[in-house]
Amino acid sequence: MPADPHENHDAALPEPVREHLGQQLRSAYNAQAEKPDYLGDPGLPPEFTPQLRRLEGRLKAHDTGREAVEDALKDILKDLPGTR
Questions:
Q1: Nearest in space to 71 (alpha carbons), one of 61, 59, 63
Q2: Domain that holds residue 67
Q3: Does the residue 21 lie in any domain?
Q4: List of residues 6+ apart from 13 with CB closer than 8 A
């Protein structure tokens, strides 16, 4: 039970306060972030590099697997009677 029974921990902050805090957080993050290598590069913090590499590897594996399944299905379908 909260120390103050009238205190509402679920109350949302008013919109102007959220906007102000969001702007401060974005400016602080951008000031500390690495500068991008090229235009369009998000310039993510180096802590994200391992997770991004794993994600890239998973996406590449997914694409490779999908292509292999597509090729195998094409081979199977072309050998079926009544298909081209």
A1: 63
A2: 46-83
A3: no
A4: 21
**Residue 71, in any domain of the structure:** yes
Write down the pTM of the prediction.
0.43
User: What whole-number distance in Å separates Cα of residue 79 and Cα of residue 84?
Assistant: 8
Residue 10, in any domain of the structure: no
Domain for residue 2, yes or no?
Answer: no
In angstroms, the Cα distances linking 23 to 15, 26, 29, 41, 43 are: 12, 5, 10, 21, 18
pLDDT tens-digit profile of 8-45? 666 678 888 888 888 888 777 766 666 666 666 666 77
**CA triple 40-42-44, angle to 5 deg:** 160
pLDDT digits (tens, 9 = 90+) for 35-81: 666 666 666 777 888 888 899 999 999 999 999 999 999 989 988 88
**Cα–Cα distance between 33 and 42 in angstroms, integer?**
9
